[in-house]
Amino acid sequence: MMNSAELFERSKAVTPGGVHSPVRAFKSVGGTPIFFEKGQGAELVSVEGKRYIDFCQSFGPLLLGHRDPEVEDVVRETIGLAWTFGACEPYSLELAEWITSRIPWVEKVRFVNSGTEAVMSALRVARAATGRNKVLKFDGCYHGHVDSLLVKAGSGLAGDEAASDSAGVSAQTASETIVAPLDDQTAFDAIFDRHAESLAAVIIEPLPANYGLLVQRKEFLEHLAKRCKAAGVLLIFDEVISGFRIGLTGMAGLLGLRPDLVTYGKIMGGGFPVGAYGGRRDLLDLVAPNGPVYQAGTLSGNPIGMRAGLATLKKCERDGIWDKLESAGKEFSSSLNKSFAAEGLNLQVENVQSIFWIHQKTDRAIRSLKDIPAEHGVGFKKIFHGAADRGVYLAPSGYEVGFLGAAHTPEILERARGVIVEAAKNAK
Q1: CATH match of 4-67+320-426 with 3.40.50.2300
Q2: How far apart are CA 70 and CA 134, in angstroms?
């Protein structure tokens, strides 16, 4: 088989940038993308046959690691039954019943095929329910490639001027989104007060994890919920990354908050393309065929994703996987921090449950984009390549987080710790 460099050259001839999702192109870290041909447990194997301890975990969904044997048995069995129906089947029903029986604020759920679809649909429901058009999001939160949410804040406090981060998004579409800074209650209140009467929803990642790991104060999120409820604005939690990874009930459960709508993806499919939006019964009943909000998908409720997802979630609940990963995440992050300090390295690790983020050391919590050290991205490049050279694969961007899976044993994590520290030492 060709090596990664040769395959990348072939890909660039037939695919934009040679990739099917931009971060895979290694533009943030430089160099040639690694092409992988196999994943098993905690490891990836490249086309060159090199083995890597994988902390990308397909950007989060592989809570049990690659090809967990128990889930793989279910997948193989399902392939023997059907690949897709485009019709009613019992498998999505079983997963929907499992979710709604365990998460009180998800009274009904509709399956889609990605987190982007879930967010797009939740926004449509919010606009229909409220009769309003505008949405408030937060700078530093990513909600998929929905046109109206590919925007950033305008200058100053007002947040009134939204400019698209992507070509091809009309100014009119972008103008329906208001952007506020994270962790700034004063700024949020000023913006919210100015637009409350035209706002359909406030959407936020309760654990922003697409621009570093920006852990929010519970008090800030409680304030958002209180303001939304008083103004008749719907609160949407985007838990595409945190849902079912932080725990059974995600960040909403951890914080004791109850969003009106919530979006899921990634983990819920056990490694297959799955998304969902859910929430209050009256809101979901606005969706066709019950109500006037149209949303459809031929492959929604795909039997392989539904059964793989249910098998994954059942195993996590049965075997206490979430508690085990919380302990492993704390231990791994703590050991890295101790090693960085012992070596005099200007690095530290932020950690929530099974998610971690290596960043430049700061004297304050990083809760918004302004808190991230300016030199962070540059410093990460050398660490990434040093770790990869030694057989540890981190997400190829200093602003992406790392994920632990159940397949990361203590021995594997100790080996990875040594590699990352050595890479960081040589990156100075």
Answers
A1: no
A2: 45
Extract the residue ranges of the chain whose pLDDT is less than 50.
153-161
Sign of CA dihedral 295, 298, 299, 302: positive
- What pLDDT is stored for residue 75 in this prediction? 98
Residues forming the active site: 142, 238, 266
Per-residue pLDDT, 269: 92
Q: What is the CATH number of domain 69-318?
A: 3.40.640.10
Domain positions in the chain are 4-67+320-426, 69-318
Q: What is the pLDDT at residue 153? A: 34
Which amino acid is present at 112? V
Cα→Cα distances 163→9, 35, 63, 172, Å: 34, 35, 36, 10
- pLDDT in the model for residue 114: 95
pLDDT tens digits, one per residue of 55-107: 999 999 999 999 999 999 999 999 999 999 999 999 999 999 999 999 999 99
pLDDT in the model for residue 156: 33
